[in-house]
Amino acid sequence: MVNTNLAGLTPSLLKELQSNYGFKASKALGQNFLVDPNLCTKIAHYLPVGSNVLEIGPGIGSLTLHLARQANKVIAIELDKHLLNPLNCVLDTFGVPEKVDVINQDIMKTDLELLCSKNNIEYIFGNLPYNISAPLLADISRKVPNVKCVVAMVQKEVGERLSAKLGTRAVGAITYKCQFFMEIENIVHVPKMSFIPRPHVDSVVIKMDRRADKDPRAILSSSQTDEMFELIDTAFAQRRKMLRQSLKIFFGSHLEAVFELAKVDPTLRPEQLTSEDFLNLYTSWVEQGNK
Ligand code: SAM
Protein backbone atom coordinates (compact mmCIF):
# COMPACT_ATOMS: atom_id res chain seq x y z
CA MET A 1 0.00 0.00 0.00
CA VAL A 2 1.29 3.42 -0.88
CA ASN A 3 2.07 6.16 1.60
CA THR A 4 -1.07 8.32 1.82
CA ASN A 5 0.25 11.12 3.94
CA LEU A 6 0.98 13.34 0.94
CA ALA A 7 -0.43 16.34 -0.92
CA GLY A 8 -0.30 14.45 -4.20
CA LEU A 9 1.90 12.40 -6.46
CA THR A 10 5.57 12.86 -5.52
CA PRO A 11 8.75 11.25 -6.95
CA SER A 12 8.89 8.73 -4.08
CA LEU A 13 5.24 7.75 -4.53
CA LEU A 14 5.80 7.27 -8.27
CA LYS A 15 8.77 5.03 -7.51
CA GLU A 16 6.66 3.00 -5.10
CA LEU A 17 3.88 2.60 -7.68
CA GLN A 18 6.39 1.54 -10.35
CA SER A 19 7.83 -1.12 -8.10
CA ASN A 20 4.37 -2.34 -7.01
CA TYR A 21 2.82 -2.39 -10.48
CA GLY A 22 5.90 -2.87 -12.68
CA PHE A 23 5.13 -0.27 -15.36
CA LYS A 24 7.62 1.89 -17.26
CA ALA A 25 7.04 5.31 -18.84
CA SER A 26 6.32 4.80 -22.55
CA LYS A 27 8.08 7.26 -24.85
CA ALA A 28 5.74 6.44 -27.72
CA LEU A 29 2.75 7.52 -25.62
CA GLY A 30 4.50 10.70 -24.46
CA GLN A 31 4.51 9.63 -20.82
CA ASN A 32 6.15 12.23 -18.61
CA PHE A 33 4.46 12.09 -15.24
CA LEU A 34 3.94 15.20 -13.16
CA VAL A 35 5.49 14.88 -9.72
CA ASP A 36 4.85 18.40 -8.46
CA PRO A 37 1.64 18.50 -6.36
CA ASN A 38 1.79 22.31 -5.96
CA LEU A 39 1.76 22.75 -9.71
CA CYS A 40 -1.13 20.27 -10.07
CA THR A 41 -3.14 22.16 -7.44
CA LYS A 42 -2.47 25.40 -9.28
CA ILE A 43 -3.65 23.96 -12.61
CA ALA A 44 -6.74 22.32 -11.08
CA HIS A 45 -7.84 25.66 -9.60
CA TYR A 46 -8.69 26.84 -13.11
CA LEU A 47 -11.59 24.38 -12.97
CA PRO A 48 -14.72 25.93 -11.46
CA VAL A 49 -15.83 24.03 -8.35
CA GLY A 50 -18.62 21.54 -9.01
CA SER A 51 -18.15 21.26 -12.78
CA ASN A 52 -17.78 18.22 -15.01
CA VAL A 53 -14.42 17.86 -16.69
CA LEU A 54 -12.82 15.64 -19.30
CA GLU A 55 -9.20 14.82 -18.54
CA ILE A 56 -7.10 13.64 -21.50
CA GLY A 57 -4.35 11.19 -20.55
CA PRO A 58 -4.64 10.92 -16.73
CA GLY A 59 -1.57 8.64 -16.56
CA ILE A 60 -1.28 7.60 -12.94
CA GLY A 61 -3.49 10.39 -11.70
CA SER A 62 -1.08 13.24 -10.81
CA LEU A 63 -3.52 15.88 -12.02
CA THR A 64 -6.67 13.73 -11.83
CA LEU A 65 -6.82 13.64 -8.05
CA HIS A 66 -6.59 17.45 -7.84
CA LEU A 67 -9.26 17.87 -10.52
CA ALA A 68 -11.46 15.39 -8.63
CA ARG A 69 -11.25 17.55 -5.51
CA GLN A 70 -12.66 20.50 -7.47
CA ALA A 71 -15.04 18.71 -9.80
CA ASN A 72 -18.49 17.20 -9.70
CA LYS A 73 -17.26 14.50 -12.09
CA VAL A 74 -14.03 13.74 -13.95
CA ILE A 75 -14.16 11.61 -17.10
CA ALA A 76 -10.58 10.48 -17.69
CA ILE A 77 -9.57 8.93 -21.03
CA GLU A 78 -6.34 6.94 -20.90
CA LEU A 79 -4.99 4.82 -23.76
CA ASP A 80 -2.41 2.79 -21.84
CA LYS A 81 -4.04 -0.19 -20.11
CA HIS A 82 -0.89 -0.81 -18.05
CA LEU A 83 -1.58 2.40 -16.14
CA LEU A 84 -5.15 1.58 -15.15
CA ASN A 85 -4.30 -0.36 -11.95
CA PRO A 86 -1.84 2.19 -10.58
CA LEU A 87 -4.26 4.97 -11.56
CA ASN A 88 -7.12 3.32 -9.67
CA CYS A 89 -4.80 2.75 -6.72
CA VAL A 90 -3.93 6.48 -6.62
CA LEU A 91 -7.61 7.49 -6.85
CA ASP A 92 -8.48 5.08 -4.01
CA THR A 93 -5.56 6.18 -1.90
CA PHE A 94 -6.50 9.84 -2.15
CA GLY A 95 -10.17 9.10 -1.54
CA VAL A 96 -11.64 10.22 -4.85
CA PRO A 97 -12.52 7.02 -6.78
CA GLU A 98 -16.25 7.77 -6.99
CA LYS A 99 -15.55 11.17 -8.57
CA VAL A 100 -13.65 9.72 -11.54
CA ASP A 101 -14.78 7.55 -14.46
CA VAL A 102 -11.76 6.10 -16.22
CA ILE A 103 -12.21 5.10 -19.86
CA ASN A 104 -9.50 3.02 -21.55
CA GLN A 105 -9.65 4.50 -25.03
CA ASP A 106 -7.72 6.45 -27.67
CA ILE A 107 -8.71 10.11 -27.47
CA MET A 108 -8.05 10.46 -31.22
CA LYS A 109 -10.73 7.84 -31.90
CA THR A 110 -13.24 9.29 -29.47
CA ASP A 111 -16.30 11.24 -30.57
CA LEU A 112 -15.59 14.20 -28.31
CA GLU A 113 -18.68 16.15 -29.26
CA LEU A 114 -20.89 13.22 -28.26
CA LEU A 115 -18.94 12.43 -25.08
CA CYS A 116 -19.01 16.04 -23.92
CA SER A 117 -22.67 16.65 -24.67
CA LYS A 118 -23.72 13.33 -23.07
CA ASN A 119 -21.80 14.14 -19.88
CA ASN A 120 -22.50 17.84 -19.80
CA ILE A 121 -18.81 18.69 -20.05
CA GLU A 122 -17.73 22.27 -20.68
CA TYR A 123 -14.11 21.91 -19.51
CA ILE A 124 -11.22 19.83 -20.85
CA PHE A 125 -7.94 19.53 -18.96
CA GLY A 126 -4.82 17.50 -19.65
CA ASN A 127 -1.09 17.19 -19.62
CA LEU A 128 -1.13 16.21 -23.27
CA PRO A 129 1.08 13.69 -25.05
CA TYR A 130 3.35 15.86 -27.20
CA ASN A 131 2.77 14.07 -30.49
CA ILE A 132 -0.98 14.72 -30.62
CA SER A 133 -1.37 18.02 -28.76
CA ALA A 134 -1.63 20.47 -31.68
CA PRO A 135 -4.12 18.53 -33.88
CA LEU A 136 -6.15 17.57 -30.82
CA LEU A 137 -6.47 21.17 -29.64
CA ALA A 138 -7.35 22.33 -33.16
CA ASP A 139 -10.08 19.69 -33.30
CA ILE A 140 -11.52 20.61 -29.91
CA SER A 141 -11.50 24.30 -30.84
CA ARG A 142 -13.41 23.72 -34.02
CA LYS A 143 -15.53 20.65 -33.46
CA VAL A 144 -16.60 20.66 -29.82
CA PRO A 145 -18.47 23.94 -29.40
CA ASN A 146 -19.98 22.92 -26.04
CA VAL A 147 -16.54 23.03 -24.50
CA LYS A 148 -15.98 26.57 -23.35
CA CYS A 149 -12.57 26.23 -21.74
CA VAL A 150 -9.50 24.03 -22.26
CA VAL A 151 -6.51 24.03 -19.92
CA ALA A 152 -3.68 22.02 -21.44
CA MET A 153 -0.03 21.40 -20.76
CA VAL A 154 1.92 21.40 -24.01
CA GLN A 155 5.47 21.70 -25.25
CA LYS A 156 6.65 25.31 -24.85
CA GLU A 157 7.01 25.87 -28.61
CA VAL A 158 3.48 24.60 -29.27
CA GLY A 159 2.07 26.81 -26.52
CA GLU A 160 3.87 29.85 -27.91
CA ARG A 161 2.63 29.15 -31.41
CA LEU A 162 -0.98 28.64 -30.33
CA SER A 163 -1.09 31.72 -28.12
CA ALA A 164 0.89 33.97 -30.49
CA LYS A 165 -0.47 37.44 -31.09
CA LEU A 166 -1.84 37.66 -34.63
CA GLY A 167 0.26 39.94 -36.80
CA THR A 168 3.55 38.75 -35.25
CA ARG A 169 6.18 36.36 -36.57
CA ALA A 170 5.33 33.79 -33.91
CA VAL A 171 2.08 32.78 -35.66
CA GLY A 172 1.54 29.78 -37.91
CA ALA A 173 -1.47 28.31 -39.71
CA ILE A 174 -2.45 26.47 -36.50
CA THR A 175 -2.62 29.81 -34.62
CA TYR A 176 -5.38 31.06 -36.91
CA LYS A 177 -7.17 27.72 -36.99
CA CYS A 178 -7.47 27.73 -33.20
CA GLN A 179 -7.86 31.46 -32.61
CA PHE A 180 -10.90 31.65 -34.87
CA PHE A 181 -12.69 29.87 -32.05
CA MET A 182 -10.68 30.40 -28.87
CA GLU A 183 -8.81 33.14 -27.02
CA ILE A 184 -5.54 31.59 -25.94
CA GLU A 185 -3.06 32.58 -23.23
CA ASN A 186 -0.05 31.01 -21.57
CA ILE A 187 -0.78 30.75 -17.87
CA VAL A 188 2.06 28.72 -16.32
CA HIS A 189 5.63 27.96 -17.34
CA VAL A 190 6.59 24.42 -16.33
CA PRO A 191 10.25 23.44 -15.93
CA LYS A 192 11.48 19.97 -16.96
CA MET A 193 12.15 19.00 -13.37
CA SER A 194 8.41 18.88 -12.63
CA PHE A 195 8.28 15.55 -14.51
CA ILE A 196 9.58 12.01 -14.30
CA PRO A 197 11.06 11.11 -16.70
CA ARG A 198 12.29 14.60 -17.55
CA PRO A 199 11.33 15.68 -21.07
CA HIS A 200 13.91 17.30 -23.37
CA VAL A 201 11.96 20.54 -23.60
CA ASP A 202 10.18 22.90 -21.24
CA SER A 203 6.39 22.99 -21.14
CA VAL A 204 3.69 25.58 -20.66
CA VAL A 205 0.10 25.42 -19.56
CA ILE A 206 -2.23 27.24 -21.92
CA LYS A 207 -5.80 28.30 -21.28
CA MET A 208 -8.18 28.44 -24.23
CA ASP A 209 -11.49 30.25 -23.76
CA ARG A 210 -14.20 29.98 -26.35
CA ARG A 211 -14.93 33.25 -28.07
CA ALA A 212 -18.44 34.54 -27.92
CA ASP A 213 -18.00 36.33 -31.25
CA LYS A 214 -16.30 35.84 -34.62
CA ASP A 215 -17.16 32.15 -34.94
CA PRO A 216 -16.84 31.42 -38.69
CA ARG A 217 -19.40 28.65 -38.31
CA ALA A 218 -22.03 31.39 -38.18
CA ILE A 219 -21.43 32.04 -41.88
CA LEU A 220 -19.47 29.07 -43.23
CA SER A 221 -20.49 25.44 -43.61
CA SER A 222 -18.13 22.74 -42.39
CA SER A 223 -16.77 22.07 -45.89
CA GLN A 224 -16.29 25.81 -46.44
CA THR A 225 -14.35 26.00 -43.17
CA ASP A 226 -12.18 23.14 -44.48
CA GLU A 227 -11.56 25.16 -47.65
CA MET A 228 -10.74 28.32 -45.74
CA PHE A 229 -8.26 26.33 -43.64
CA GLU A 230 -6.71 25.01 -46.89
CA LEU A 231 -6.32 28.61 -47.98
CA ILE A 232 -4.53 29.42 -44.70
CA ASP A 233 -2.29 26.34 -45.06
CA THR A 234 -1.46 27.34 -48.65
CA ALA A 235 -0.48 30.85 -47.60
CA PHE A 236 1.72 29.57 -44.75
CA ALA A 237 3.35 26.88 -46.92
CA GLN A 238 5.32 29.78 -48.42
CA ARG A 239 5.18 32.17 -45.51
CA ARG A 240 8.05 34.38 -46.71
CA LYS A 241 6.33 35.12 -50.00
CA MET A 242 3.78 37.83 -50.62
CA LEU A 243 0.20 36.59 -50.65
CA ARG A 244 -0.26 37.43 -54.34
CA GLN A 245 2.49 34.88 -55.03
CA SER A 246 1.65 32.17 -52.47
CA LEU A 247 -2.09 32.24 -53.29
CA LYS A 248 -1.70 32.56 -57.06
CA ILE A 249 -2.66 28.96 -57.81
CA PHE A 250 -5.38 28.87 -55.14
CA PHE A 251 -7.21 31.95 -56.50
CA GLY A 252 -6.36 31.33 -60.18
CA SER A 253 -7.81 33.90 -62.56
CA HIS A 254 -9.66 35.64 -59.69
CA LEU A 255 -6.46 36.61 -57.88
CA GLU A 256 -6.67 40.38 -58.25
CA ALA A 257 -10.44 40.61 -57.86
CA VAL A 258 -10.40 38.56 -54.66
CA PHE A 259 -7.82 40.81 -52.97
CA GLU A 260 -9.70 43.89 -54.09
CA LEU A 261 -13.06 42.66 -52.88
CA ALA A 262 -11.60 41.46 -49.55
CA LYS A 263 -9.74 44.75 -49.09
CA VAL A 264 -6.53 42.87 -48.29
CA ASP A 265 -3.16 44.12 -49.51
CA PRO A 266 -1.72 41.36 -51.78
CA THR A 267 1.85 42.37 -50.94
CA LEU A 268 1.47 41.29 -47.31
CA ARG A 269 2.83 38.03 -45.86
CA PRO A 270 0.33 35.64 -44.23
CA GLU A 271 1.48 36.40 -40.68
CA GLN A 272 0.42 40.04 -41.15
CA LEU A 273 -3.26 39.18 -41.60
CA THR A 274 -6.04 39.17 -39.06
CA SER A 275 -8.51 36.27 -38.84
CA GLU A 276 -11.08 38.54 -40.51
CA ASP A 277 -8.69 39.11 -43.44
CA PHE A 278 -8.52 35.35 -44.08
CA LEU A 279 -12.27 35.06 -43.73
CA ASN A 280 -12.77 37.97 -46.15
CA LEU A 281 -10.35 36.47 -48.66
CA TYR A 282 -12.22 33.19 -48.52
CA THR A 283 -15.71 34.69 -48.82
CA SER A 284 -14.55 36.99 -51.65
CA TRP A 285 -13.20 33.97 -53.50
CA VAL A 286 -16.54 32.20 -53.03
CA GLU A 287 -18.32 35.31 -54.35
CA GLN A 288 -16.07 35.28 -57.40
CA GLY A 289 -17.25 31.80 -58.22
CA ASN A 290 -14.04 30.04 -57.00
CA LYS A 291 -13.25 28.32 -60.29
N1 SAM B 1 -1.67 13.34 -16.74
C1 SAM B 1 -0.50 12.56 -16.38
C2 SAM B 1 0.48 13.46 -15.65
O1 SAM B 1 0.35 14.67 -15.76
O2 SAM B 1 1.37 12.94 -14.99
C3 SAM B 1 0.16 11.93 -17.59
C4 SAM B 1 0.55 12.89 -18.69
S1 SAM B 1 1.50 12.15 -19.98
C5 SAM B 1 2.31 13.59 -20.62
C6 SAM B 1 0.32 11.84 -21.28
C7 SAM B 1 -0.70 10.75 -20.98
O3 SAM B 1 -1.54 10.60 -22.12
C8 SAM B 1 -0.08 9.38 -20.73
O4 SAM B 1 -0.70 8.80 -19.62
C9 SAM B 1 -0.39 8.59 -22.00
O5 SAM B 1 -0.48 7.20 -21.81
C10 SAM B 1 -1.71 9.20 -22.42
N2 SAM B 1 -1.99 9.10 -23.86
C11 SAM B 1 -1.11 9.13 -24.89
N3 SAM B 1 -1.74 9.03 -26.07
C12 SAM B 1 -3.07 8.95 -25.78
C13 SAM B 1 -4.25 8.83 -26.58
N4 SAM B 1 -4.17 8.80 -27.91
N5 SAM B 1 -5.44 8.75 -25.95
C14 SAM B 1 -5.53 8.79 -24.59
N6 SAM B 1 -4.44 8.90 -23.78
C15 SAM B 1 -3.23 8.99 -24.36
What can you see in these coordinates?
The longest helix is centred in the C-terminal third of the chain and has 16 residues, at 222-237. The protein has helices at 11-21, 37-44, 64-70, 84-93, 112-118, 133-143, 156-163, 173-179, 222-237, 243-246, 248-251, 255-262, 275-287, and strands at 33-34, 52-56, 73-78, 100-104, 123-127, 149-155, 182-190, 195-196, 203-210. It is elongated. It has two domains: 11-212, Vaccinia Virus protein VP39 (Rossmann fold, 3-Layer(aba) Sandwich), CATH 3.40.50; 217-289, rRNA adenine dimethylase, C-terminal domain (Helicase, Ruva Protein, domain 3, Orthogonal Bundle), CATH 1.10.8.100. Helix 3 links the parallel strand 2 and strand 3. With 291 residues, it is an alpha/beta fold. The mean pLDDT is 95. Strands 4-3-2-5-6-9-7 form a seven-stranded mixed β-sheet, with helices on both faces. The chain has a two-stranded antiparallel ribbon with strand order 1-8. The structure holds S-adenosylmethionine. S-adenosylmethionine (SAM) is lined by residues 29-34, 57-59, 62-63, 77-80, 83, 106-108, 127, 129, 132.
State the separation between the terminal residues, measured CA to CA: 68 Å
Which compounds are bound in this model?
S-adenosylmethionine
The total of beta strands comes to 9
Structural class: alpha/beta
Query: How many domains, as an integer?
Result: 2
